[in-house]
Specification:
alpha/beta, 564 residues, Alpha-D-Glucose-1,6-Bisphosphate, Chain A, domain 3, globular, 4 domains, single chain
Length: 564
């Protein structure tokens, strides 16, 4: 039963905690939440249950989401992350609390950590807390869900079991529950409501332009497989012709194995066993269906990847075109009227060719942020229409309240203008604005390609990626490296940035940056240039400088270039 007094039952928390002893491991809540081998997560899950209740109390009883997944990691791993009331990722201040709770070594430490949160955030323990929990297909989920439930129960929270869900579905449900009955109601807070919203919006866009050819979807043998089947059933094969592969969800050892978005992106090759036919469309989801990449085989038999950069440019170009055709204007809070501000948000890892294409050909402003979805999402909120995708295929499009109001209330002066407005309104429903969503993003891509009557090669023709290379260098202290300007330059150590600039200037279309890892004592080196040979030479020269002059440790890789 929910606790209805302002007292915390410490004895109940301690008793429950004893069922979930903490291993001798140091835990860190990062961008992906907690993620590691599943057999280390029992105590973490219990403590995340406590944290979710406290976070709900902070939000005066609004629903907090908890997703149990390890995304593209191997099947034996698992993880957990919290979702804010409007579907956002957990705020950074509370990531610190999550880490502190997970690492509390004794009963007293755990109670002290809980009390510190209650006191510092002025929480009322009499506020009833609600938590919704979803999970992917990993075999470790049932045991970990029970641990999580024990944590929620220990602080008297109310638990809503969402069951098997993709990560984006859990974000969607969380936002729907918290906006129901308000002017910002996001949708029906059920799985059926999710599919209906996407399906109806997609069909409004494609209407008479349904894709005439099949798309093959690699579901990574994960939760995306059953959800894709349900989506196809709701939409109907006359509107969406999908060949689903890698859907062996409960066959042990298959999740993300030789398949999935990460395998395809990192390896620059199709999933094992998938024989690509020239000109046909293919895409791969990841294990929890929040990432997607497309690919195809060209006329000259080359594997061609259409990654997050390509998806972002496709979306930004299509939306910019609709805005121009509609001539829609936005009324601001001060009653002034102005153009719709469309923008693309990228990280330093976005290919330089994509940035040039978006700025110069699409005439869409580009803003850079540090690496990490939370930075991209936050920056995208500054536009009326903010597009962001990481190269790995995780991303979405955000629409401001003013933009949505303008799209819905405006009347087109011509049939073309009205059609553009109708499509913009449908896009606001089709695109999951809470988080990157592989199912939603796939429908967006399919709809755009259908409207443009484009093949994969038509899409790919906008720009050609510059050759790129990513390397890492083991260093004695990664904290000695301080990145600035959205990770594109180094402030420290002194002198290194000047040396990087000196090398970059030697190569046509050269670009390189060095940034510290967030988790291990390595620095990551990224390089681009006009040819793969030049790109590799630039990357290995920078790696050599870092290793030789700025604290490299361990055996020196032979490929690192020695300047002196």
């Amino acid at each position: 039963m929910p606790i209805a007094s302002n007292q915390m039952d410490s004895a109940k928390i301690i008793a429950a905690s004893h069922k979930h002893p903490r291993p001798n491991t140091v835990f860190t809540y990062g961008t992906a939440g907690f993620r590691m081998h599943a057999n280390k997560l029992d105590s973490v899950m219990f403590r995340v249950g406590l944290l979710a209740v406290l976070r709900s109390k902070f939000h005066h009883g609004r629903v907090i989401g908890v997703m149990v997944t390890a995304s593209h990691n191997p099947e034996e791993d698992n993880g957990v992350k919290l979702v804010e009331p409007l579907g956002e990722m957990l705020v950074q201040d509370w990531e610190v609390y999550a880490t502190q709770l997970a690492n509390a070594a004794t009963d007293d430490d755990l109670i002290s950590a809980v009390n510190a949160i209650v006191t510092s955030q002025s929480l009322s323990m009499s506020t009833l807390a609600r938590v919704i929990i979803g999970h992917d297909t990993r075999p470790s989920c049932p045991v970990l869900l029970a641990s999580l439930q024990d944590g929620v129960d220990a602080l008297g929270g109310e638990l809503i079991q969402a069951g098997l869900k993709t990560t984006p579905q859990l974000h969607y449900l969380t936002r729907c529950l918290n906006t129901a009955g308000t002017p910002d109601a996001y949708g029906e807070p059920t799985e059926e409501g999710y599919f209906a919203k996407l399906s109806e919006a997609y069909k409004r866009i494609v209407d008479k332009n349904a894709p005439k050819t099949q798309v093959t979807v690699d579901a990574a043998n994960g939760v995306g497989a059953p959800m894709m089947k349900k989506l196809i059933d709701v939409i109907g094969t006359q509107h969406l012709n999908v060949n689903l592969v890698n859907d062996a969800v409960y066959v042990p050892g298959t999740l993300n194995h030789d398949c999935g978005a990460d395998y395809v992106k990192v390896g620059q090759k199709p999933p094992v066993g998938l024989d690509l036919k020239v000109g046909e469309r293919y895409c791969s989801l990841d294990g929890d269906a929040d990432r997607i990449v497309y690919y195809y085989k060209s006329q000259d038999d080359i594997f061609r990847l259409l990654d997050g950069d390509k998806i972002a440019t496709l979306a930004a170009g299509f939306i910019m075109d609709l805005v121009r055709k509609s001539s829609v204007k936005v009324t601001r809070s001060d009653s002034s009227v102005s153009e719709v501000h469309v923008g693309l948000v990228q990280t330093a890892y976005a290919n330089g060719s994509s940035t040039t294409y978006v700025k110069n050909t699409l005439n869409v402003p580009v803003v850079f942020t540090p690496t990490g979805v939370k930075y991209l999402h936050h920056e995208a909120e500054h536009f009326d229409v903010g597009v962001y995708f990481e190269a790995n295929g995780h991303g979405t499009v955000l629409f401001s309240r003013e933009a949505i109001r303008a799209f819905k209330s405006s009347k087109g002066s011509t049939t073309e203008a009205q059609d553009a407005l109708d499509t913009l309104v449908a896009l606001t429903d089709l695109i999951n604005q809470t988080v990157g969503d592989a199912l939603s993003d796939m429908l967006m891509v399919e709809a755009i390609l259908a409207c443009k009557n484009w093949s994969p090669s038509d899409w790919d023709a906008g720009y050609t990626d510059l050759p790129s290379r990513q390397e890492k260098v083991k260093v004695s202290n990664r904290l000695a490296f301080v990145a600035i300007n959205a990770d594109t330059e180094l402030e420290k150590p002194d002198g290194l940035q000047a040396k990087i600039n000196e090398q970059v200037a030697k190569f046509p279309s050269g670009r390189s940056f060095v940034r510290p890892s967030g988790t291990e004592d390595v620095v990551r080196v990224y390089a681009e240039a006009d040819t793969q040979v030049n790109c590799d030479l630039l990357a290995n020269t920078i790696c050599g400088i870092v290793f030789d002059e700025f604290g490299g440790v361990g055996q020196r890789p032979e490929k690192f270039v020695k300047l002196h």
